Structure formats: C-alpha cells, structure tokens
TrEMBL record:
Family matches, as Gene3D superfamilies: paralog of FGE (formylglycine-generating enzyme) (3.90.1580.10)
Keywords: Iron, Oxidoreductase
Domain Sulfatase-modifying factor enzyme-like: 159-389
Name of this chain's protein: Sulfatase-modifying factor enzyme domain-containing protein
Superkingdom of origin: Bacteria
Pfam families, per the entry: DinB_2, FGE-sulfatase
Species, as recorded: Streptomyces silvensis
Residue span(s) of domain DinB-like: 5-122
Transit peptide found in the keyword field: no
Transmembrane stretches, start-end: none
Single Gene Ontology MF annotation: formylglycine-generating oxidase activity
Length: 419
C-alpha cells in the first residue's frame, strides 16, 4: 500500500511514468478492450479512457520530462472502482461457451485480466524503489520467504554444469483459436533441432553476483554488449542491481517490495537484460536460447504440458512475497537436479521476435502488444517468477518480453557448449 501522494507521483525509474499513471492505465485498458468487444456500451467510455490507455516507453528518459499532467491518486482510485464494476458486469454477461477467436468477447475479457497481471508484475520493481517511508505491506500480501543465507558463500563462476542432450523441440500453437488465452506473439509454431549443451543447475544467486560487483563488472565496458547498455550505465544503473541497497561502505541490503531486509545471498539475483548479459560475458558463458529452454524443459520435466499440471509446486502465483533460496528444502527439482522454474523468470539470449515471422498475425484487439517491440532493444524471457499469475505463470507458453534497461523479477541461468 502506498501511503502518500508523493509515492504515486514519483518517477522511480528514468524510463517509467509515475505509478499513478499505471494505476489508471490498467483500468482504461480494460474499458477500451471491453468496449471494442461490445461488453461495455460506448456511452460508458470517455476521453479519459483514451488518454490513459496507452503508455509511453521511450528510448531516452528525456522524452518523459514534459509529461506532468496526471490524475490525482484519489481520481485514479475512483476511476478504478467504477471500471471494476463494469468488468464484473461483463464477467456476468459474457457467454462462457464462447470460442476464443482473436476478437471474441471472452478473449477481450481475459485480455483485460491478463493485462492487469502483467502490470502487477512490472510494477513490483517500481514499488520496491520507493523509500520505505512511503509504503507499507498491504493486508493480504503474501509474506516474503524467511529462509536465506546471511553471508555470501564462496563459489566458482560456473559450478557443476548439467548436461542437456538437446534434440528436437516444438513449441507454440497451430492457430489463434486454442482453448486458452494467448498473446499474439505466442501464435505460430516453431520447430528446431537443439545441439547438446551444458547448463547451470540453478539461476545465479545474489552471492554469486557479488563477485561480479566486487570484480568491477559494472566498470568493464567490454562486458556490456547489449543494445543501449551505455545509456543504461550512464542514466539508470547505480552500479548494483536495483534489488540491492548499500549505504556508504555498509553491508549490502535487499530491497523487498515493501521492506528492506538483510541480503539473502542464496536467493536468485534479479536484474535487467543488460546486467544478465554482462554477467554471462564475465563468467565466460551465455544465456539460454528459447529453443534450449524448451529442450531443457523437455528433459527435466517432460515439457510444458507436464509442468502445467504441477504449476502449484513451483514458487509462482504469489504463494510467497519473494523468491526463495535456490534448491531450497522442498523445492521441486528436475530429473538432473536442476532448479530453474519459479522464483524468477529467466532472461534468454534472444532478441524479442515472433515465433514465425512468415505467419505472424497482429492482434486485432491489441495491435501494439508485440510488433512494436520486435528487435534488439527488447529481450525475451522464459519461465515465471514468484509474482507471475494467470497466463504469466503458464511456463513454456507465455513469451514474456521487456526492454533491455528494465529490471524485472528475472534472473540469469548460464549455459555453455557441451564438453
């Protein structure tokens, strides 16, 4: 819960708008999509809906300097309350036997819900950047995991890599009318033959990332090879992950969502794509490709369909309010002892693009969802974090993506060529 107007109006990240915009934005998005599908009468819509529906994601933070005319928190909350009533009415009215064609009313309703889930996920890294005095844990928010190691453990840059045999992979969907909700970048099919490779048994921990920090990794320009890395280092980065805090020469602390804590050194580090690639370069390793992720998913858990049946076994869906230690007691490990599902999503080596560029079809309900982001400025993510809900937690199906400079609830899983 945010305690003061200052919390809603602060721009905590150079590339993001104030939190009050996102508070109103998700409601405006729901209004517009439900109106497009005929679930909300056009007389219920307003210019405010149109104004707040579309966000701004600049290539340079200076582009946001003149954007200051935002609603008050009270206005945004009242607007959300009104839209919530209309959404609940749409839930009652939509025919549940409806099919899932791209423009179907049922799909528009699910899109509104899933868009809200995405923004919950992307807002957590912004809320964590607020000073503690401006926020408090809301009632009903899950408690963070208490289990963690209080001191960094000495370890190699790449400990005990696991062999993945690779082989044929197939992922995606044959069409646009499957039984479940999908975003347009998930329509299409990809098949590939994956060569054998080696993969780390778990994502890089805060303790492992500390070695990169202490080795001057943020100052070594040759490690920062992603598009826009120089701007990130100059305008965004403090020389630490945004989930870390350090006052002067004091101990490192962890920025929880609503409270700062002692550093959990055995939790997976949460970073931007720039930081993930820089660490992999420093470690003499790489990140998984999308095809390698599916090969690993097949080998360790039997593929996406098998994982879907066990979704509740992983740290996803806000069962906890934080990650937990890698290979924690009770964690569900893969057949090779790997622990890479849940906790954090995983940055892949891939730039974000369509599954099949020859057959990609823009979503008629949301034409700006995927296509404007295709390219080297945006990275692809796999897996799911502790806060992934709904479709975002559909591991092996959801193709999440984010601009390179945005820290997410996402980590680093290293890979190397097979020995």
């Amino acid at each position: 819960m945010l305690d003061a107007p200052e919390a809603y109006c602060a721009r905590v990240h150079p590339f993001r708008l104030p939190l009050v915009f996102y508070l109103a934005h998700t409601a405006a998005f729901s209004m517009r999509k439900l109106a497009m599908a005929g679930l909300v009468d056009s007389s219920e819509t307003s210019a405010f809906d149109e104004r707040m529906e579309r966000g701004v994601s600049p290539e340079d933070p200076d582009e946001l300097a003149g954007l200051t005319d935002w609603p008050s928190p009270e206005t945004a909350w009242a607007y959300r309350k009104r839209v919530r009533g209309l959404v609940l009415r749409a839930v009652e009215d939509v025919p549940l036997s409806a099919t899932m064609e791209p423009e179907a009313p049922l799909r528009a309703l699910l899109m509104a819900i899933e868009h809200e889930n995405i923004h919950l996920h992307t807002s957590i890294p912004l809320v964590r950047m607020l000073p503690s005095r401006l926020k408090e844990t809301p009632q009903g928010w899950p408690a963070p995991v208490q289990e963690h190691t209080g001191a960094p453990v000495a370890c190699d840059r790449g400990e005990g890599f696991v062999h993945c045999r690779g082989g044929p992979v197939q992922f995606g969907s044959a069409g646009t009318e499957g039984n479940g909700f999908q975003w347009d970048n998930e329509w299409g099919r990809r098949e590939a033959e994956v060569a054998p490779f080696a993969v780390a048994p778990h994502p890089v921990t805060n303790g492992q990332f500390l070695r990169f920090v202490e080795d001057g990794g943020y100052e070594k320009a040759d490690l920062w090879t992603t598009h826009g890395a120089r701007l990130f280092l100059d305008r965004v980065s403090s020389g630490l992950p945004n989930s870390w805090l350090r006052a002067d020469a004091g101990p490192y602390r962890y920025r929880g969502v609503f409270a700062d804590t002692d550093m959990p050194w055995d939790w997976p580090v949460e970073v931007s794509r720039h930081e993930a690639v820089a660490y992999a370069n420093w470690a003499g390793a790489g990140l998984l490709s999308e095809e390698q992720f599916h090969a690993l998913l097949n080998q360790e858990f039997g593929g996406a369909k098998q994982v879907a049946h066990r979704n509740g076994d992983f740290n996803v869906g806000l069962q906890h309010g934080s990650p937990r230690p890698v290979r924690a007691r009770g964690a569900v490990l893969g057949r090779g002892g790997t622990d890479f599902l849940g906790n954090v999503a995983l940055w892949l080596e891939d730039d974000f693009t369509a599954l099949d560029g020859n057959t990609f079809r823009v979503d008629p309900l949301y034409p700006d969802f995927s296509e404007p982001w295709f390219g080297r400025e945006t990275g692809l993510l796999a897996g799911a974090s502790y806060a992934a809900r709904g479709h975002m937690a559909d591991i092996g199906v959801m193709r999440d993506f984010m601009q390179n400079h945005m820290d997410q609830l996402a980590g680093i899983l290293l890979t190397r060529p097979a020995p």
